[in-house]
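C-alpha cells for chain A. Residues wanted.
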C-alpha cells in the first residue's frame, strides 16, 4: 500500500463552465479578476475572442505563442491599455510603465544596480534586516498576520538595500500608505475595460488622490536630501538612489523620471516578494512533510555557511518551495500587451488592437502542461526536474526585454529570508484561522491575511 501522503491542494477558484452575465462580470473584474477565467483558459493553447466588450481579447497559454508575443515579436506590441490606465497615474514614466525611448534609457541607467555582483553585495544587509525583524517572534502563543509581516519585512529590506534607510517620513506610515495607494488607484475599474474614456472619473480616483500627493511629496524630499548631500561633497551611499541621480542629465533621466522610478521600485520591489513569501509559509504549514525538508535544509545550511550569499546555491529545496508557491499563487498574475499590428498564429489573425494576456494564473495551472496542476509539489522545481519545465510555461517574472529587472534580487532575498525564518521558527496556521482565499489586486493576495502562530524550533 502506498503510504506517501497526498500532496496538499490549496484554495483556488473553480474554473467557470459558463460565462457570467455582464453585471456579474463587472463585479468580478472589480473584486477578484482571477475568478473570471473559464475552463477553456486552463485547457486550451489559447482563447481568442475577436469581439469582446472591450475589443478583441487573447489569452495566450501555448509557450510558443507566449515566446512569440513577449520575445520574438515584442516590437509588435505595446503595454496593454488597462494596465496603463491603472498604473500610469501612480508610476508615470517609471520603468514598469515607461515605453519606447524613455524605457530604453531608464532600463540601461538602472541595469548596474541589478548586476549579479551588485545584488550579491546586498546579501549581508538582507540577512541583518531579517534577523532584527525576527525578534518579534520570540513571544510564544501570539497570532501574527504573516501576510502583513512579510510586507513589512520586505519593505525594510528594500529601504536598507536600495535606499540606505534614507526614505523620508515615518517608515510605518509610508508603508501603510503605499499599500492603500495600490489598493485604491492600482485597481482595475469596470470602466477601464469597456473603453469608457479616461476623463470619466472612477471611484478610485477620489480615494487615491490624497495618498498620491503624500507620496510625491515624500519622494521629492528624499531626493532633495540626497542631492544636498552630494552637492556638499559628502560621499553618498553607493545605492539605487545615488545611481539614479548619477544618471540625471540630458542623455539620462530627468528629475521627474527619477521620482517616478523611486515610486516604481518601492511599489514593485517589495509587495511581490512579500506575497510569495507569505504563500510559501502558508503552503508549507499545510504540507508538514514538505516543511520538514525545508526546515532540515535551512538549519543545516545556515549553520554550515556564515555568508548568507552561500545559502542561495545550497538550499535547493527551499528555493523549490518558493518557486512552487509562485506557480500556484503568482505574485503578478497578469502580463498584458496590445497588438500594434495584425499577428498571424496557427491560422488565426490576432487583429491590431487586440488585448493579449499572458496569465501566469491560468498558465501555471494549465491542465496540459503540468502534472497535478493544482497540487503543491515543490520537488518539480528541484534542479534534477527543472529541465522538464518549458521556460515559457512558468513565468512569475515575465520574459523578453521587459522581464522583471529585480528577479535575482527577489530570489536571493527570498532564500535568505526563508533560511533565517525556517532555521529558527515553525509557522503554523492559527487554530481558528480561516483558509486564505486568493484575491487579485495588483498582486495575488490572501484575503483576510494569514493568521499564523510562530514557535521557536
Ligand atoms: C517575487 C517577486 C517579483 C515578481 C513575481 C515580479 C514580477 C514581475 C513581472 C511579471 C514583471 C514583468 C511585467 C511585464 O512584462 O509586463 C516585472 C517587471 C518589473 N519588476 Fe518585478 N517582480 C518581483 C520582484 C521585483 C523586485 C524585487 C523589483 C525591484 C527591486 C522589481 C522591479 C520590477 C520592475 C522595475 C519591472 C519593470 C521592468 C521593465 O519593464 O523593464 N520586481 N516584475
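Reply:
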Amino acid at each position: 500500500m502506498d503510504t506517501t501522503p497526498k500532496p496538499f491542494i490549496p484554495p483556488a477558484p473553480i474554473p467557470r463552465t459558463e460565462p457570467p452575465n455582464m453585471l456579474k462580470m463587472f463585479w468580478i473584474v472589480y473584486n477578484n479578476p482571477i475568478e473570471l477565467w473559464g475552463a477553456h483558459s486552463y485547457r486550451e493553447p489559447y482563447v481568442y475572442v475577436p469581439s469582446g466588450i472591450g475589443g478583441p481579447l487573447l489569452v495566450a497559454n501555448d509557450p510558443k505563442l507566449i515566446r512569440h508575443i513577449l520575445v520574438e515579436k515584442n516590437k509588435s506590441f505595446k503595454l496593454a491599455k488597462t494596465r496603463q490606465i491603472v498604473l500610469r497615474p501612480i508610476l508615470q514614466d517609471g520603468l514598469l510603465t515607461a515605453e519606447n525611448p524613455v524605457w530604453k534609457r531608464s532600463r540601461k541607467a538602472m541595469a548596474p544596480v541589478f548586476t549579479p555582483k551588485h545584488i550579491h553585495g546586498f546579501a549581508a544587509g538582507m540577512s541583518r534586516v531579517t534577523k532584527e525583524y525576527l525578534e518579534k517572534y520570540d513571544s510564544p502563543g501570539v497570532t501574527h498576520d504573516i501576510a502583513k509581516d512579510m510586507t513589512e519585512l520586505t519593505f525594510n529590506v528594500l529601504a536598507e538595500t536600495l535606499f540606505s534607510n534614507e526614505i523620508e517620513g515615518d517608515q510605518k506610515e509610508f508603508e501603510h500608505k503605499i499599500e492603500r495607494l495600490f489598493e485604491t488607484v492600482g485597481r482595475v475599474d469596470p470602466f477601464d475595460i469597456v473603453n469608457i474614456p479616461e476623463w470619466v472619473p472612477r471611484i478610485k480616483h477620489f480615494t487615491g488622490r490624497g495618498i498620491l500627493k503624500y507620496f510625491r511629496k515624500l519622494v521629492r524630499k528624499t531626493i532633495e536630501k540626497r542631492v544636498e548631500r552630494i552637492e556638499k561633497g559628502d560621499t553618498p551611499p553607493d545605492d539605487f538612489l545615488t545611481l539614479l541621480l548619477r544618471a540625471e542629465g540630458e542623455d539620462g533621466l530627468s528629475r521627474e523620471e527619477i521620482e517616478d522610478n523611486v515610486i516604481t521600485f518601492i511599489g514593485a520591489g517589495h509587495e511581490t516578494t512579500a506575497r510569495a513569501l507569505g504563500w510559501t509559509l502558508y503552503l508549507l504549514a499545510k504540507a508538514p512533510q514538505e516543511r520538514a525538508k525545508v526546515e532540515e535544509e535551512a538549519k543545516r545550511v545556515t549553520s554550515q555557511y556564515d555568508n548568507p550569499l552561500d545559502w542561495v546555491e545550497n538550499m535547493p529545496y527551499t528555493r523549490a518551495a518558493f518557486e512552487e508557491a509562485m506557480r500556484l499563487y503568482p505574485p503578478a498574475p497578469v502580463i498584458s500587451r496590445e497588438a500594434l499590428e495584425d499577428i498571424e498564429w496557427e491560422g488565426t489573425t490576432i487583429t491590431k488592437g487586440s488585448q493579449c494576456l499572458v496569465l501566469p494564473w491560468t498558465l501555471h495551472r494549465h491542465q496540459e502542461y503540468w502534472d497535478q496542476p493544482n497540487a503543491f509539489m515543490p520537488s518539480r522545481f528541484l534542479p534534477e526536474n527543472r529541465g522538464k519545465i518549458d521556460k515559457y510555461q512558468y513565468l512569475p517574472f515575465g520574459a523578453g526585454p521587459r522581464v522583471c529587472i529585480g528577479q535575482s534580487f527577489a530570489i536571493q532575498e527570498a532564500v535568505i529570508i526563508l533560511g533565517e525564518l525556517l532555521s529558527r521558527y515553525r509557522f503554523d496556521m492559527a487554530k481558528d484561522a480561516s483558509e486564505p482565499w486568493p484575491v487579485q489586486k495588483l498582486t495575488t493576495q490572501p484575503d483576510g491575511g494569514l493568521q499564523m502562530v510562530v514557535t521557536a524550533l
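The mean pLDDT is 90. The chain has one domain: 22-456.
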